[in-house]
Amino acid sequence: MTKALASPADVALILEGTYPYVAGGVSTWVHQILGAYPDRRFALLHIGPHPGAYEKPRYTIPSNVTTLAEVYCRGAVQAGKKLARHIDAPRFPRGRKPSRMLRAIRRIHVDDVVDDELLADLASGDLSMGEFLHGDATFALLRDELYDRVSPSGPFMDFFWHFRAMHIPLLRLLSAPCPDAGIYHAVSTGYAGLVGAVASVRSGRPLVVTEHGLYAREREMELSRARWIKDIEDRRSHCVPRPSPLRRFWSHYFRMLSRIAYHRAARLVTLSEANRAKQLADGAAAHKIVVVPNGVARPALPAPLSPPAHARSGEIGEIVTLSASGKPRLKVGFVGRVVPIKDVITLIKAVGMAREHVDLEVQIVGPQDEDPSYAKRCFGLVESLNLGEVIQFLGPRHVAELYPTFDVVLLTSLSEGQPLVMLEAYAAGVPVIATDVGACRELIEGGETDRDLGPSGIVTRIANPPATAAALITLARDPSLRAAMGRAALARVHARYQLNQVVASYESLYSSVAA
User: Fold this and answer.
1) Can you give the pLDDT at residue 300?
2) Which of 97, 235, 388, 486 is the most buried (most CB within 10 A)?
3) 231 phi, psi to nearest 5 deg
4) Domains, the chain, ranges and CATH?
5) pTM (2 d.p.)
6) Taking the CB of residue 10, how many other CB atoms lie within 10 A of it?
7) Could you give the CA distance from residue 68 to residue 362 in angstroms, rounded to a whole number?
8) Helix, strand or coil for residue 459?
9) 46 and 30 Cβ atoms separated by less than 8 Å
């Protein structure tokens, strides 16, 4: 869907695989931003994998959104000679100057330098899809330079198809129209940051980039276990296959896309000091980075819940919930997408281990349709561990009413920025067990200004079911500790993570870059 604008929007939000079609923390943040500035006109450019990937918006789009445009990384492409006729310009005409875009593609892989010239070349738009797919210059770049540099011992045709798959999205996205706006705001690096950087160059208007998670590092984790990249088998031995250099090829590409966005951005917003340090290590300029944590609407102090019938008083007056077996009982909530990066597999394994010592009731709340094969794997693991009566998959729910029913919220993510789920739990006075990723440690243990509040949960190691199980057992057996952590959680969100603070920060940021 695309609506035309009679005049430029104030801000164009560039979104990859998120709002308004995918529910989650980033989408919730976008919806907050749109609602916080009713007098600003927003255009939305959504980047999706292919047409038909999403059925309908998951959110009611506010009236101050004047444009919703969609572009896709992939789409139906005719093959062979039919494609050449379809594109109009299948090869470089004789005598024509070499493509600046092709020069930029070369530099991304060879020079490892991001500068204004590279961005100007990408913005030139002088390379058609036909020229890229069938042009002699493209093939010469592949054969004479990149193949020997990237994968000289691997099959040339593997490299050929990976190169095509890598750059077809780039050409599709940079040839698509971008909404006219006074400010371009990419809500990640990657493809969104690339589109925002090029739109900024072409229009001369400023770019803001907000990184919730660290896009390039998340893609690198996915690439490390991607099955569509074939590793190298040594037929002379029975050794484990060596990692394909194509994994490094893709990882380097996504890191360069991040650096392109970093270079062009007037301001680069991150959610925590931990992620700021990583952005600096990845090439961001220190003077551009602004730390703006997520926030939630100011919570009221929650009313105390009535103790369940099967509860007794603890030694110091806290409520110890017991199951019929006499074991301490803990109600655990997971709120998020059932996808690999959330590592629900570790959560399930940890619950299986902890169940030997305490009784648990676990509710997994969130979409299960983004990665059906992973969700199916999770369902199968629950069944194989005989946890069907312990773990419930509830699907998407309105979670505000659920948080106060949890004793603890559990996150086992492999990567996060600053999870809104944690702040929402804190607003209900619920402590959190979370892996040591993104801003999770800072949210739990506090920073310079709020460390004296005490911990509001437990930090665990990544992909470590025993450590996660130990944390669950600790909080099940010690309700007084759990209560103290809940009080710290509520105090922390009051002190540092208010939505009105986020709104004020972005109002100041938008005004400063537009000046």
Assistant:
1) 52
2) 486
3) -80, 170
4) 8-74+95-125+172-295+498-515 (3.40.50.2000), 311-497 (3.40.50.2000)
5) 0.86
6) 17
7) 38
8) strand
9) no
Q: Are 78 and 117 in contact (CB under 8 A)?
A: no
- Put the strands of the sheet holding 432-435 in their side by side order: 391-395, 359-365, 329-335, 408-411, 432-435, 457-460
Show the beta-strand stretches assigned E in 24-63: 42-48
Strand pairing report for 319-321 and 311-313: antiparallel
Per-residue H/E/C for 59-92: CCCCCCEEEEEEEECCCCCCCHHHHHHHHCCCCC
Alpha carbon of 336 to those of 24, 25, 217, 412, 413: distances in Å?
7, 8, 20, 10, 10
pLDDT at 398 over 70: yes
Q: Where are the alpha helices (DSSP H) in 271-331?
A: 273-281
Tell me the per-residue pLDDT of 431-483, one tens digit each, with 9 for 90 and over.
999 999 999 999 999 988 899 999 999 999 999 999 999 999 999 999 999 99
CA 429 to chain centre: 26
Q: How far apart are CA 118 and CA 109, in angstroms?
A: 12
Q: Is 332 strand, coil or helix?
A: strand
